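At your convenience, could you comment on the folded chain following this short note?
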Amino acid sequence: MELKTKRLILRQISVKDSSEIAKIGNDKEISYFTYYWPYPLTISKTRKIISEIEKEWKEKKTVVMFKIQLKETKKTIGVLDIYDIDRRDKHAKTGYWLGRNYWGKGYALEAVKGVIKFAFNNLNLNKIFADTLTDNLSSNKLLEKAGFRKIGVMRKDKLVKGKLRDRFLWELIKKN
């Protein structure tokens, strides 16, 4: 599966991508904000995460992960997923990260907008959720720009680096 935006290709991830994903995702700050991408991020840990996601998509179609590539060079710059896909209630969640060298260039916003279009038009969803640590200023700003609405704060909700942290809950409802 492949999605295209102006500057990016979102290609469904596979275990063969483990080495390049581990290389760009092996960053303490990425791990802090994404929770399930550990630090240090080894190829074997990456392979395990991707393998579980591939299996889940094949068996249940409840999660799909894309590697984010620059259209011009085909260089992988990050990851984006749609997960907890609930076709009955027509909603899912999304999450994403980019390698540090690609921050602040608008790539994450472009990728999120591409996956929103896919979720609403191809998966026939009506709502997408996202959650962020309250101190993830860049991601909070990005979700606002993408049209998400902050709907709440989950206090002391996520154990990150030994401390319970607050998270914002965001939603985007399809315009009919």
Summary: The helical segments are 18-25, 28-34, 43-60, 107-121, 137-145. The chain has five helices and eight strands. The mean pLDDT is 96.
